[in-house]
Amino acid sequence: MKKPIPYDFLLDYLPRTVVIKPAIGMFYIYFEGKIVLIFRRVNKNPQHNGLWIATRREDHASLRADIPAITEFVFDEGETFDSAWLQLREGHDDFEQAAIQICELISHRDKRIGKATPKAALITSLKSG
């Protein structure tokens, strides 16, 4: 039996042409040749559940200024993980509104969100072709 996609209400705020690929406890969201989000809900390490946002380090400050609920990845020991990815934690008080804002940025093709990869280009071209 397939696991249901977590946060499926967000699909209403994403472009219809997104491609969703399931993985173990996660769903990768692709749009126009880029990976843009990962929806994660897993029992192991639940502090990492929520949305993972594909971006670039140089865009972190402006995204976090626009959506203060977004954070860097932090491990249990308090160590920050130096990554191009940002996180919106599932348990954040503003999770739903912040998640909708992120999806709207993607729908408006905000250049700060998304990472072009050969795999992402292939996945999205297969859907459109």
Structure, explained:
The protein is of the alpha+beta class. It has one domain (8-122). Helix content is 24%, strand content 26%. It has helices at 60-66, 95-107, 118-128, and strands spanning 19-23, 26-31, 34-40, 50-54, 73-74, 80-81, 85-89, 115-116.
What's the gist of this structure?
The protein has 129 residues and is of the alpha+beta class. It has helices at residues 60-66, 95-107, 118-128; strands at 19-23, 26-31, 34-40, 50-54, 73-74, 80-81, 85-89, 115-116.
Attribute tags:
129 residues; alpha+beta; six-stranded antiparallel beta sheet; two-stranded antiparallel ribbon; 3 helices
Total strand segments: 8
Coarse structural class: alpha+beta
Largest sheet: 6 strands, antiparallel
Query: pLDDT average, as an integer?
Result: 92
Please indicate the count of domains. 1
**CA-CA gap between termini:** 29 Å
- The proportion of strand residues reads 25-35%
Shape: globular
Give me the strand/helix succession.
Answer: EEEEHEEEHEH
Please tell me how large the radius of gyration is: 14 Å
Low-confidence stretches: none
How much helix is in the residues? 10-25%
Q: Report the total helices.
A: 3
What does the secondary structure layout of this molecule look like, with pairings?
Layout: E1 19-23, E2 26-31, E3 34-40, E4 50-54, H1 60-66, E5 73-74, E6 80-81, E7 85-89, H2 95-107, E8 115-116, H3 118-128
